[in-house]
Design brief:
The chain has helices at about 55-65, 75-90; strands at about 10, 20-30, 40-50, 50-55, 90-100, 105-115. With about 120 residues, the protein is an alpha+beta fold.
Length: about 120
């Protein structure tokens, strides 16, 4: 279930220049689909915009929608990348889901998009 409809963008103020935007969301929460227990982590977004930039307040509300969603770390990180790419169509983007320890194991999922790559 994608919640990309809540994402908003604004025009890149310098589309002729390549620059990177770094966004860290240290309070990401979702639910384990097996146990129903909360999962916590940091979502790190790095992207080079093309014509559009992500609006941060809308991004915050988009990520909050995951709080009650039963989803594995890998699926959440990939869904976030897919939704953000669909919303702003960047030149390139990396999303990292860095999840806190559960049962003594930490997980970090890195997903990447490059415009024009398959």
């Amino acid at each position: 279930m994608s919640t990309a409809a809540t994402l908003e963008t604004f025009p890149n103020p310098r589309p002729e220049r390549e620059f990177e935007i770094a966004i860290d969301c240290p309070e990401f929460t979702s639910m384990c689909p097996k146990t129903g227990l909360p999962d916590f982590g940091t979502i790190r977004i790095r992207y080079v915009p093309d014509r559009l930039c992500l609006e941060l307040k809308a991004l915050k509300y988009y990520l909050i929608e995951y709080r009650m969603k039963g989803i594995f770390y890998e699926a959440a990180t990939n869904q976030i990348l897919d939704d953000l790419v669909a919303a702003c169509q960047p030149r390139r983007m990396t999303v990292v889901g860095d999840f806190t320890a559960r049962g003594g194991i930490t997980t970090k999922v890195t997903t990447e998009y490059v415009k024009g790559s398959a």
